[in-house]
Amino acid sequence: MNNILMNSGRSFWLALSLLFGFIGAACAADPLVDAAWVKANLGKPGIVVVDIQGTSDFLRGHIPGAASTDFGKSGWREENADKVPGMLPAKLDKLVAHIGSLGIDNNSHVVLVAPGGGYSDMGFATRIYWTFKVLGHDNLSILNGGMVAWTKDKANPLETGAAKVTAKTFTPHPRLDMIATVADVKAAKAKGVLLVDNRPEDQFVGINGSPAAKENGTLPGAHNLPSGWTTENGGGMFRPKTELEKLFKVANVPTSGEQINFCNTGHWASVGWFVSSELMGNKKARIYDGSMTEWTITKAGPVEHKISLK
Fold first, then answer.
1. If DSSP states are collapsed to H, E and C, what string results for the chain?
2. Which SS3 state, helix, strand or coil, does residue 63 take?
3. Which of 8, 57, 155, 282 has a Cα at 20 to 30 A from 195?
4. Is 176 helix (H, G, I), strand (E, B) or coil?
5. Helix, coil or strand: residue 12
6. Higher-pLDDT residue of 69, 2
7. Per-residue pLDDT tens digits for 174-222
8. What is the pLDDT confidence band of residue 28, given thresholds at 50, 70 and 90?
């Protein structure tokens, strides 16, 4: 969303959130659950499993009772007025209706299930998790390892065919203060706010780049903590906290204090944010939704090049 919309909408929604006290948002759940937990809680009232596999994979086999959402087509992200792709929708109506169609209301415990083949597709789950948080819903978990973890145990049941879900009503209570804007990024250095680049090192230093961004490089002064580090061998299982603490130290990224996570389009940044905020407990971490794509498309400011090959 563009800066004008962000600035005008922020005050209104913050006031609304305070007024209603985040009515309907249930208490927070464990951010990560394992396959055994999911199996033990299948079918319990209030538990809604949301499968983020592609449609064909979902039809071939999914956790019994799961609802299906398409990460790229179900309205979780959109192109904004500046032609920046992958942004949180400026208008929430369609997304909120889709959430309700998944059988989710404000009392639901939502369990997100990504394919689980690697850290990048776990980003489907972390990005949707973050979106729910922005919408004021805390009762969320991610199945660690996704469908790969579920199908590893052949005793875990699978259901085929289309989802059978009864639609419900979900009411958002947006927390737009969770989103870092261009202005926030520009002010970060002067305020001592850490910028964390969650892309692979080759993109951080500027050797390679994303087709979505107009220039290689990173935000000036950023530290690099690749999202691929945070899962075991770059797969779908998040590392335990003791290992993550060592990685944060190597990357010179504190586990507390204000922090802005970014990547190219806010996808890998959601993995970094999830680890910082939900696994390490740093509730001052935020995502710069537009990331390097918005920064370079809108020419918001300088880009730091650690190395130049030309």
1. CCHHHHHHHHHHHHHHHHHHCCCCCCCCCCCEECHHHHHHHCCCCCEEEEECCCHHHHHHCECCCCEECCCCCCCCCECCCCCCCCECCCCCHHHHHHHHHCCCCCCCEEEEECCCCCHHHHHHHHHHHHHHHHCCCCCEEEECCHHHHHHHCCCCCCECCCCCCCCCCCCCCCCHHHEECHHHHHHHHHHCCEEEECCCHHHHHCCCCCCCCCCCCECCCCEECCHHHHEHHHCCCECCHHHHHHHHHHCCCCCCCCEEEECCCCCHHHHHHHHHHHHCCCCCEEEECCHHHHHHHCCCCCCECCCCCC
2. coil
3. 8
4. helix
5. helix
6. 69
7. 999 999 999 999 999 899 999 999 999 999 999 999 999 999 999 999 9
8. low
Copy the structure tokens of residue 224: 């690099």
Distance CA 61, CA 302 (A): 47
pLDDT over 80 (residue 269): yes
Closest by Cα among 168, 165, 10 to 96: 168
Residue keyed to tokens 């259901």: 159
Query: Which residues does 183 contact at the CB level (< 8 Å), separation at least 6?
Result: 3, 7
Percent of the chain with pLDDT over 70: 91
74, burial (CB in 10 Å: exposed 0-12, middle 13-18, buried 19+)? middle
Residue 249 has pLDDT above 90, yes or no: yes
Q: Are 175 and 134 in contact (CB under 8 A)?
A: yes
256-266 pLDDT tens trace? 999 999 999 99
Residue 117 has pLDDT above 60, yes or no: yes
Among the listed residues 247, 213, 242, the one whose alpha carbon sits nearest the alpha carbon of residue 228: 247
Cα–Cα dist 105/100, whole Å: 6
